[in-house]
Recover the amino acids of this structure.
């Protein structure tokens, strides 16, 4: 009996998901150490649903200028970016969050926000083969953040930097205070 193309596609996606999940589990152990027992979501559909929720949450905030904070740093100034994210983490406290690792297929890991924000570039590097990006989604309210390495093109020259987007309360207030140097 010949397998239907959609069944083959589902199986291939499930295999890619399992392989990426194993890679991510190993990378999380390297970032957090063995004392932290964390594991990515083990269901492809559930991880995809978390990624869709992240995208919808961010998209819902975009039309409202007051609902989103954006800030950028040149790539050669990672210290200022990291210090701001550390202050944001202190202002925010440990929130239950989803770490969303984009890709095909996406992965999701339940972690406290402060554990991730303690090493923002390490967690952003989990997406290195796509483009360094850190995505956090609050598990209790429609809020989160994205930190991504972006290229700005000036003619034939590309200048790289880090772009931060934060939306939803209490994340928005914590980011605003951090950007003012409070926290």
């Amino acid at each position: 009996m010949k397998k239907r193309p959609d069944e083959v596609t589902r199986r291939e996606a499930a295999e890619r998901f399992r392989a990426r999940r194993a890679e991510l589990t190993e990378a999380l152990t390297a970032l957090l150490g063995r004392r932290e027992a964390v594991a990515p979501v083990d269901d492809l559909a559930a991880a995809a649903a978390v990624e869709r929720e992240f995208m919808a949450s961010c998209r819902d905030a975009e039309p409202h200028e007051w609902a989103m904070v954006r800030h950028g740093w040149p790539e050669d100034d990672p210290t200022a970016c990291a210090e701001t994210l550390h202050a944001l983490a202190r202002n925010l406290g440990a929130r239950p969050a989803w770490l969303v690792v984009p890709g095909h297929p996406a992965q999701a890991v339940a972690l406290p926000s402060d554990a991730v924000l303690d090493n923002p570039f390490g967690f952003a590097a989990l997406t290195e083969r796509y483009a360094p990006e850190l995505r956090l989604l609050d598990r209790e309210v429609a809020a989160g953040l994205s930190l991504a390495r972006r290229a700005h093109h000036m003619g034939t020259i590309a200048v790289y930097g880090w772009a931060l987007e934060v939306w939803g309360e209490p994340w928005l207030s914590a980011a605003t205070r951090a950007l003012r140097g409070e926290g």
